[in-house]
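Onboarding guide, step 5: your first structure request.
Type a short instruction followed by the sequence, for example:

Predict the 3D structure of this protein.
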Amino acid sequence: MSSFGLPENPASIASVTDRVLPVEIGGAVAAIHFLGDVAAFVGAEEAVTFAAREGEATRLPIHDGAVLCVTSDGKRIVTGGDDGKLMQIAGNGDVTTLATDAKHRWIDNVALNSDGAVAWSVGKTAFVRTAKGEEKSHEVKSTVGGLAFAPKGLRLAIAHYNGVTLWFPNMTATPEGLEWAGSHLAVSFSPDNKFLVTAMHEPALHGWRLADGKHMRMTGYPARVRSMSWSANGKLLATSGADTVILWPFGSKDGPMGKEPAMLAPLQARVTVVACHPREDILAAGYSNGTILLVRMTDGAEILVRKNTDEAVTALGWNAKGNLLAFAAGDGKAGLLEM
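The system replies with structure tokens like these:
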């Protein structure tokens, strides 16, 4: 039995619903990130609501309109909005405007690098501000669909129509292109930097092995994949988009090429969001009917965190220690679970 107390028999489902501390957000939540042990519920409109494990919530306005994108490295949260502003919330709660688009265009995507650099996009243009404050930009052939920094070094993946551009902002070399027909949206490097995966506008993922550009087609989804999360050891990629959690294997040099994914935690509802535990082979899965399950990836054992409420789960997030899980549903109902 794991330290989480997941039952050895997957058919025996335990429940921790009585241990969930409710948090009232009062509006739709787009994403959840933690700054230390404080959960930040990033609203779809204007504000971020902070809640500690004691449950007291504090609302902090950050945008004059919709929040279009958000990311965090655990030390700061960076958001982009339809007001043309790129905003940062530090761990102490200080709010800073990192950038303002001169034409007040929407800031659609944002990414953070481990060295402190930040990237964002406006239309077809991706911007990078290095840790030293130098700002550079690169325009791709169509609207940017997603951004991601490589795990090491200053290398930015820019997803767009018909593929991904790999750009080294500190180098004069021509950016590398990875091509595949269709519209590519969210993009993610594997933690070992061997693979790159995009979620497409169609119900599919596409991937490349970075060493040689070998393609990886990951299809069969009934709906678009809107949530991806790497396991703690980086060998599995959990995704939404089906009535089970789809778990792709990336532990070998070929990744999921020629392999079938594992399918865990089936329900008569669609998985809307997934979040892998930062230290153990466990994930949290939220469903379109409001259910939340903790799932052990090795054998599919489950624990019920939240019963179905008919309101889809929109966000999940773990703190860095992995002892706090936060969630939110479409009606603004949210909660914290201390493990």
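Each response can be followed by summary notes, for example: The chain has one domain: 14-338.
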